Amino acid sequence: MRLKFDKFLPVFWIGIFAVAFLIIIGRFLVIQVTGEVSGVDIKALADEKRTNEYSIPAQRGSILDRNGMPLAQEHTVYRVYAVLDESYTSDPLTPKHVTDAGKTAAKLAPVLGMEESEISAILSKGMENNKFQVEFGKNGKELTQQEKEEIESLKLPGIYFEEEAIRFYPNGMFASHTLGLTDKKEGVIAGISGVESYYNDILTGVDGHISYQRDKFNVKLLDPKEVVQEPENGDNVVLTLDQKIQTLLEDSLTEVVEQYNPSRISAVVMNAKTGEILAMGNRPSYNPNNLSSVENWYNDVISTPFEPGSTMKIFTLAAAIEEGVWNPNDTFQSGSYKAGENIQKINDHNWGRGWGTISYLEGIQRSSNVAAAKLAYEKIGPAKFLEYLQAFDFDTETGIDLSGEVAGVIQYNYAIEQITTSFGQGTTTTPMQLMKAATAVANNGKMLKPYIIKEITDSDTGKVLQEGQTEVVGEPISSETAKETLRVLETVITSEKGTGYNKYKLDGYSLAGKTGTAQIPNSETGGYMTGRENYVFSFLGMAPADDPELIMYVSVKQPELEDTEPDSAPVSFIFNNVMENSLRYLNIETDEEKTPSIPIVQVPEWQGRTTQDVVASFQKLGIPTEVIGDGENVASINVEQGTEITSHQKVLILTDAPKMPDLTGWALRDVLSLQDLIGFEVNWSGEGYVVTQDLKQGAAISSADVVTVELSSE
C-alpha cells in the first residue's frame, strides 16, 4: 500500500498545482476583463494613486462703502514653519531641514520679534522629540509679504512658508460693530457678527480644484489629464455707509471718550428720504484686526434697548397733533401731575418745580414731563396712544439687514406705565427704533425701513446682482401732522425757552429736534440711579428743519462733566460737528441758498370790510391773525394791503373797538408792532418773552395809554 501511494504522490501534487494555476490564471482573466478586485476598480485606484489633486480656495467677497472704498477684504499672509527631519534632505550639499538651531534662531529672532533663546528652545525640543516640523506660535503667523521676503533673504535651510487668507479691516476701529467679525472654521473664513454674519453666504465663495497625473517622482506626466475647476469667489457687499461721514462720526466719538470718559456712546446718521444708514458707531468699540482687548461686543444702536427719555416726546406730540387734540396755546399747571388717587405722581425734570402755568407749546420746548403725560393720558387717551406707539413700530424690530437686532418693550400694563411711556420712561427702545419712527416725521408721514446694504455685486465682473430699496413700512401720521411736528420741534432749538436753545446749532441750516435726559435703572436698589452724571443724555435731530435730508441720533451715558459744563456738552459736540459737516459734504443747500419754500401770499384788501370777513380772508390764505378788540369792522392792520408776506407771518387786526389782548408769551417785537398800530406808549424791562403786563386783558386801550410789560427768558 505504501508503494502504491508513493507512486501516485507526484501526480497528486501536479494536480494541486494545476488547479491553483488555473484559479490564478482565471482570477487574472477576471480582473483583466472586469477591472475590479474585491469590488474596487483598480484602474480608478491606480489613477487616484498617481493623481495629485489640490483645492483652489475661493476668495471671500469684500465689504465696501457706498463709494467703493474697501472696509473689509481678504488679505494674504504667511505662516512660517521649520522642517527638522533629516530625511527631508536628499542632497547633503543643499539641506532642506534645519541644520543649525542656534544660527537659525539668531537670524529669525529680530524678524519675528521673539527672543533668540525662545526660538532655539522650540527648535531643540522638536529635534529631541523627533518631530518632522515645528511652528513658532503667534509670532510666526500672519506674516506680511515684506516679512516673508526678509526671512527668505536669510537663506536659512529648513524654513518654509504656508500661504493663508485672513480677514483684514483697512481702517482699524471703524464701524466695527456694523462690519462685524469672522472666524476660521476648518480653514474657511466665516462671519460671526454684523454684516460679515448676516451676508455670510453671499460673501463666501465656492472653492475650485486642480488635478493632474504624475509619476512616482511627483513629476507631471506628458499627458497629465489635467482638470481645472476655477473657484467661484464670493460676491462683494456694498454698504450704504459713507466713509467720510463715518470718519467724522468716529473721530467725534473718540474725542468725546477722551474728554468725558462716558460708559457708553451710540450714534447713527440716516438719509431721511431713503432710510439708508450713512454712519453708525458705538463706544466702547474695538479694532477687528487686534482683538486683544474688547469691552463691548454688541452693536448698541440695534442690540441694546434702554429707556430713551424725552426724545420719546416727539411721538407723543405727533400723536396729539394727528388726533386733533394739540392746541399750542392751551395752558396747564407744570411741576407735577397726579392722574388719579392710586396713581403715582410724576414730576417735571427740574425736581417738580415746573414753570407755573404755561402753554403746551412751551411745555414741549421746556421738555415738560407733565405736558407729555397730560397729552397722552388725558387728551389722547391710553388706548389710542398705545395704537400710535404700535403704529410707530415701537413693539417690533426695525428689520434692518444686520444680525443681532433686539426690539424694545412697551411697558403698558398699569396707569403709571401708560403715563411714563409718554416721556420715555419704563418703556424701552433702541436708537434704531427711534430713528425709524422719526422717518415718519421727517418724510411727510411715511415711515421707512432702515437699511444698510446698497447693493451686492459680482466680485469678478462688478455686475450688480441685488440692490437695496427704499421701503415704506407704515404711515402713522399724516403729511400735515409731520410738518406741524417739525415746526414745533424747530422751536425747541430756536426758542429761548427750548432745551436745545444755544446748544444745538448748525451754521447755515435750520434744525428740528428733541433733547433727552433718561434715568438709568439701579439694578441693586431698584428705582433709578441718582447724581448729576448718572443719566443717558441724548438728542434726535432732523435737518434742514422744513424738509429734512438727514436724521441723526446721539446718546452719551454717564459722562464725567465739569461743574460748569452743561450736561448736553458731549452730545451736542458730536451732533453739531457730524450733522453740519455731513450736510455740507452732501452739498445740501443752506437756508440762504434755498428758494423760499414758505408760500408767499399777498395781503388782501381790508378797508371797508367787517372783521369777520377780513379774518376769513386771511385764514383762507393760511395767514395767522391776532384780532385786537371785538369791533365789527376793521380799523387798521399792521401790514399794508397788497404787500407780499410769508404765510407764517403773524398779522395784527385792529377792530373799531380795540381792547387789550393777553400779551403773555409775546416777543417784544410783537408788542412794539401793536404799539405802532394803536399808538400807546410802552415801557418794558428784561428780555425774552412777556410774562406780566399792567393793563389787564380785555381793558379798552387807546393811544393815550401807557403799557408796562416785564419780559423773561426763563
TrEMBL record:
This protein's pathway: Cell wall biogenesis; peptidoglycan biosynthesis
Compartment(s): Membrane
UniProt xrefs under InterPro entries: Beta-lactam/transpept (IPR050515), Beta-lactam/transpept-like (IPR012338), PASTA_dom (IPR005543), PBP_dimer (IPR005311), PBP_dimer_sf (IPR036138), PCN-bd_Tpept (IPR001460)
Name of one Pfam family that matches: PBP_dimer
Transmembrane intervals: 12-30
Domain of life: Bacteria
Keyword Transmembrane helix: yes
Gene Ontology molecular function: penicillin binding; serine-type D-Ala-D-Ala carboxypeptidase activity
PROSITE patterns (UniProt xref): PASTA
Keyword Transmembrane helix among UniProt keywords: yes
Keywords: Membrane, Transmembrane, Transmembrane helix
Gene3D superfamilies attached to this UniProt entry: 2.20.70.70, 3.30.70.2110, DD-peptidase/beta-lactamase superfamily, Penicillin-binding protein 2a (Domain 2)
Main enzyme class: hydrolase
BP GO annotations: cell wall organization; peptidoglycan biosynthetic process
GO cellular component, one term: plasma membrane
Positions of the PASTA domain: 656-713
Enzyme nomenclature, EC number: 3.4.16.4
CDD domains, per the entry: PASTA_Pbp2x-like_2 (cd06575)
Reactions it catalyzes: Preferential cleavage: (Ac)2-L-Lys-D-Ala-|-D-Ala. Also transpeptidation of peptidyl-alanyl moieties that are N-acyl substituents of D-alanine
Stated family: Belongs to the transpeptidase family.
Protein name in UniProt: serine-type D-Ala-D-Ala carboxypeptidase
Source organism phylogeny: Bacteria, Bacillati, Bacillota, Bacilli, Bacillales
